[in-house]
Structures are given as C-alpha cells and as structure tokens.
Amino acid sequence: MMALAFAILSSFQDFLDDPAGILSDDSRNPDPREGEDDRDLDDPSLAYLSDGALPDPRTGCIIGVIDDAIPFVHQRFTLPGNLSRTASVWLQDARFRPQPGDDLPTGAEWRGAELSDLLARAASGAIAGEETIYRMTGAVDLTRPATPSGAFESGHGAAVAPLAAGFDPADPQARNHPLIAVCLPPRITADSMGVLAPVPILAGILFIINRARRLCRFIERRRNLAPGSVRLPVVINISLGLTAGPRDGSTPLERFMDAVSDFSAPDLGPIHFVLPVGNHRQDRLRARLKPGQHIAWRLPADDGTINAIEIWGPPHAHFPRGDLRITLTVPGLAPATTAFTLPWQYSILSGPDGRPLARAYYTPHQTRDGQWRDGITVIAVPTCPERLGEAFAPPGEWRVRIADASPEGVYDLAAQRDEVIRGFRRGARQSWFHDPAYRSHEPSGFPILTDAQNGGDPSVIRTDTVNAYATGERPLRGGAIYRREGTTAGYAALLDDGQPGDCLVPVDRAINSPGMILRGRDSGSFELSSGTSMSAPQLARWLAGQLSDGQRPGSRAAIRQLAENQSARPAPTPMLDFPTPFPEF
Amino acid sequence: MELKEDPPPARWSEPRAAHDRFRPGLSPYLHYYYDLRAERGDAPPREPHGPDDGADLPGQLERALRDLVRRTFE
Asked: Which InterPro entries does this UniProt record tie to the protein (chain A) (predicted)?
C-alpha cells in the first residue's frame, strides 16, 4: 500500500504550501515518512485499539468524523475499563508530533491504545482528567495563535461526533463502532464560507481510509485471522458545507467521494458518506437568471470579509471559450462586462481612482457526463477594510447581469455564506440576492417555505439550495424536522427536486423551541445546537448500525429504501425517529 | 429639467491566468487569499502569468482526480 504521506504530499501540496495561511508553522512535518511498514501492527505503542476494544470482525463498522474540535476522549467514546473506542485521531493543525503520525504532512495523531492509557491515568487520578488529556495531546494549546476551538465547551465537533459515534460505554453496540476522527484546522472553521476546506477534507478522507484499512489489518493480526479477511465497512460523517458551487456533483471533492464509494477495495468494506442537506433555504443566497436578466446583490456595510457569488452556465459540448459574460454594476459606478477567453483567467474590477473593488475568475469545468459548464466567481473586497490602507468596496446594491450575448439557457447563481461562526471573532456579514417578487413571509406572519408557496416568478429561489458539497451521486443528505410537529425545519435546504433531503431526522425540539440537547465537550456536559449538521450524524449512526446488521445498500436509493422500510412516515421523504439522546427536561 | 450625470466608469483589467498548472484545492478563493497575504508581506508575491497559461487546467484537474482515486486504494 502506498504510504499515506506520499499520497497526501503529492496530491495535496497546496495543503502544505498553505496559500491561505490556515496552518500553524509548528504543525508541519519536516520529514514525512514515505515508506509503508507494519510497525503499527506489532508495536504496542502504535496500536489502534486495546484488545478489549476490538470490534467484531464480522459485524463491526467504523465511523469516521471530519469536523472541528472533536472530543475524542469523551466518555461516549470509551468502553468499560477506560478503553478508548477512538482508534485514531488526526489533529491537523496541532504542533507536529513525530510518532505515530510520521507519515502525515502536519499535526499530531493519537491512537486508541495510548488514549486508553491516558484515560486510565485520568481515572486513577494520576492526571487531572479529560482537560489535561486534551492539553497533553495538543488538541488544546492556548499558547498558539489559532483560535483554541478545542477548548470550546459547545463546539461544532463536540456536538456532531458523539451524535455520530457516541455510545453509552455499557451499550453492546458500542464496541462494534470504532471512531476515526479528523480535527480540521480552526482557521478552516473560522472561515464560514468554507471555501478553504476542500483540501483539508480530502486529506482527512484519505487519512480515514488509510487508517481504516490498517485497523482491519490490526484486527487480523490480533485475532490471528487471514490477511485481507477483515473488511469492515466505513461511514464517514462530514457535517460541513458550502452555499455556492456548481451543484452538479462535479467538484473534485464530490467526485472523489463518489469514486471512493463506488470502489470495492479488496481489504476494506464499503465506504459511505453522510452530509447535511444545508441550512440556507430562506437566506436568499440562490437565484436563476437567463441572458439579459439581472439581479440585485446586496452587500452589507462594515463587512470585514470578502463577499462572493458564483455563476454557473448551462452545459455545452465544446471546450470553454469565454462565452459566459457578466456585467457587474457597483453602486455609483457605470456597468462593466467581463471578457474572458480561456479557462482560469481572472480580471480585477477597478473604480475611476484605480483602486480594486472586485475580482472575477473564469472557472469552467467538465461535468460528469463529459460536457462543459462555464462558471464565473465574483469576489468583492470587504466593505470595511480589515487593515488600514487596504482596498474596500462600497456597500449597497450591486447588480449582476448575464450579458445578452451569453448562450441561451438558465444560469445558476449562488452567494457564499459569510457569517460569524460562534467562538470565532471575525467581522463577517452575509450578502444576499434581492428580488421584489420574492416574499419571505405571508401577511399573517408565517414564513413562506417553498417557491410554489411564494408564487410568481422570482429570480431568487428556495429549491436547489442544497449544500454544494452534497450534489454527488452517492452521499446521503440529511434533512431536519421539528420533533414535536414532525414538519420539515424551515431553514433546511431543498434538493433540486424540492425534497428537504434524502432522509429526515428530528433536530429542533419544536418550531418555537429551536435546537436539540446535545453533549458538550466534557463528559456529562450538554449544549443546545440546531441545523442539519445535527441531522447527518444521526443518519451516519443509523447507517453504521444497518451495516453492522449485515445490510449492504449499494446506492443512495438503496439506503433511502432501507429508511423507507423502517420509517413510520416513509413518504414523500422517509423520516427516521430515534430516541432523544437526552431526556427532555 | 435637471440632467443626471453619467456615473464614473469602472473597468475590468485585461484577463490573465490565475494559475499556470493544476494544484489540488486550486480555487479563486485561494488565489485571492494568497494575493492578500502577499500584499501584507506574509507570503512571497507570485509570478504573473500570461492570459493563456491556465488553458490546460481543466484537463489537468481531470487527470489529477483520476490519479488520486487510483492511488487511494493502491
């Protein structure tokens, strides 16, 4: 097997070059190991799990979680006797640790046997408890410049990971679900647009696949089984998303997830991905236009971060030649039209004083069926400069027009999410599209939830607001309902066919009582959280249980059918209900 | 009747390639952030590219993706 380092180093050089500055300087591995060996199967210090935590080779199912600040020694990731069920965790931006992750490009890896040892020491009082473990492992380091999200009591990963893979230690299912976790660099989470995340996520997927295969070999070695005989399935939860993208399943991340799920590895079981459907149905971040039509793009004042929109054209057969042209009108200035001729060109829009206001990039790409789609990404510089002397753009109503000469067809527009993430101090403010024909609420005050309910023909739409990471053919997209009413959560995005996901699960307690009670970072603590980020891990957990039971759904439709068979409300979108992880109080 | 003045002009610069070869994670956003860091002196300035230097990037992306999938399970 190719060493992980080589695969990541050669494929993810940009991750190491770090053009956006998301990694801390001391996280880099100065000399990654390129060869593969079996030390991890023989050296007790590199063991993935203690013997008492090994899953059943026939019914086990690995759960992978990629998120921020995953509490990998939480009581819900343990078995009786202080045994860790976390087989491996990669802290991508932690201070570099040479062993055991010497094949990783950055950060620190900790494995189950050594985590079990730390848990035992904490239980005996030799070290001060979970908090000390997080500090010893580098998950929390308040001396480093990045936001210490590992210390957050109510972090995103702390809510997501136990929901996906947390079990009562005494639960007989627990042992069958080892966890492989990837904690993304905090600066990835700080960027609410999420546009910097695809490469760290791809690297995280590679890591989970590699460690899952090694865990299978480890189980064979410890159980004296034939090499290649243990093929545990894997469910990977990625509760992350983008609000803008081509939404045709053609981005590298989506195609990679599809390819991985389609591939039948001789030494690993099937791999499934579960993602949230998205939370931005009602935020006016999505529009459709035809050539000659235009729409208002409203940029708030005092925004210290960039605002961005993407425009994607209809499919065509010929190589991209710059047919798509857009006209951007900045408040107070004359309209200006792009004039690209070749892929990956960019232009800078300047005002009369020559100062930059925005950029446009021509980013056509090939679709899954071999056709091409023209794409343009517009990035407006912040309306409030982050530093004195830097460029800034006027806030207010910008206009985006698909130039008359652009090819006939429907053009998809989407604005990137741009909000402040809880715990991360940044001056982000959300831009949005404005169309007077779009109605957000009925005169009675109730929100309008669908395009049909809106009526008319507004350019701003609610359909096809799905998470732009989740338009591939294989991943399961989790939607949310209000537990008490059983109705779809109003914020949950819609697929292109108008459905609020592939499967639905309860998240918010009720329409007037948003959020669900979830575990916090420290064992025994709790937090309230909302959104389809909490749907995906519930479905990942359910799917892992199905795979443990011997089910082998070979497609998204087959998973959905499985859900329909088990659902008290199978149509129009199957709804799965689970006991609340906490008693309502 | 009061005539409204024409608004001042805005103009797009001549197109030039953002990248000259495929790198994973390549995106407009990364390109922007890199330039911002370079402006601030946190990264070395990049060499400017000609207008057609990125013409083969979509093809390179396809090949890189196929290669990555193959190597993931080698």
From this structure: FAD-bd_FR_type, Peptidase_S8/S53_dom_sf
Residue length, chain A? Answer: 585
The residue range of the domain holding A253 is 36-154+168-230+247-265
Within 10 angstroms of residue A408's Cβ, the number of other Cβ atoms is 7
Nearest to B18 among A255, A361, A387 (CB): A361
Q: Domain ranges in chain B?
A: 20-43+61-74
Using a CB-CB distance cutoff of 8 angstroms, which residues of chain A are in contact with residue B10? Answer: 328, 330, 333-336, 349-352, 357
For residue A118, what is the DSSP state? H
Burial class (CB in 10 A: 0-12, 13-18, 19+), A189: buried
User: In terms of C-beta density within 10 A (0-12 exposed, 13-18 middle, 19 or more buried), how is residue A356 classed?
Assistant: middle
Which pLDDT value is given to residue A568?
Answer: 87
Average pLDDT over residues A277-294: 97
pLDDT, position A492: 97
Here the CATH number for the domain that contains residue A367 is 2.60.120
Q: Is the ipTM, as predicted for this complex, more than 0.90?
A: yes
Nearest to B18 among A15, A193, A344 (CB): A344
B30-48 pLDDT per residue, tens: 899 989 999 999 889 988 8
> Contact A199/B24, CB-based, under 8 Å?
yes
Side chain identity at residue A415, one-letter code: A
Q: Which of A191, A193, A139, A183 is nearest to A160 (CA)?
A: A183
In chain A, residues 164-223 whose CB comes closer than 8 Å to chain B: 193, 195-196, 198-199, 202, 206, 209
Residues A296, A210, single domain; the answer is: no
User: What's the pLDDT score for residue A184?
Assistant: 94
A547 within some domain: no
pLDDT at A501: 98
B42–A332 CB contact, under 8 Å: no
